[in-house]
Write a structure and sequence with these properties.
Layout: H1 2-29, H2 38-62, H3 91-108, H4 110-129
Helix pairs in contact: 1-2, 3-4
Function: Part of cytochrome c oxidase, its function is unknown.
Membrane topology: Multi-pass membrane protein
GO biological process, one term: electron transport chain
């Protein structure tokens, strides 16, 4: 986990430098000023990299060292349960249909986008609450 945190700190600094350089160059050489799509995207990328780095750094302090932090560790030292997955969930299908309709709606017509939002919201809510009711309720 320490290596992951370091990588994201380095990426955050790199993206910050690139964002500043990109903003300055487009501000000086573009006739309309700073480019309105790339500069905010680079700032957002910088923020995401720093956010992941901070979360990883906090997780390192709160948890024990994992097998990836031990230089003498074997592959089987990190084996075990990786998560809990529902074997026959329909929620990913509805969420994917919603996302596909949203992208299609942007290209073909905004009324399709509304149906995509409905399918997507239904799928996400079903996905989040699927272990709260029915056969898998605890």
């Amino acid at each position: 986990m320490r290596a992951t945190a370091k990588i994201f700190w380095i990426m955050g600094v790199f993206f910050l430098i690139v964002a500043i350089a990109y903003g300055l160059l487009t501000g000086f050489y573009e006739p309309l000023g700073i480019e309105p799509a790339g500069f905010p995207a680079l700032i957002g990328l910088t923020g995401l990299a720093f956010m992941i780095a901070m979360v990883m750094s906090i997780a390192i302090r709160k948890n024990d060292l994992g097998a990836s932090d031990n230089l003498d560790a074997e592959v089987h030292d990190d084996a075990g349960v990786q998560g809990s997955f529902s074997p026959y969930s329909w929620a990913p299908l509805w969420t994917a249909i919603g996302g596909a309709l949203c992208f299609l709606g942007i290209a073909a017509g905004w009324w399709i986008f509304a149906f995509g939002v409905m399918f997507g919201v239904y799928g996400v809510i079903q996905w989040v609450l699927e272990f709260s009711s029915g056969q898998h309720a605890h």
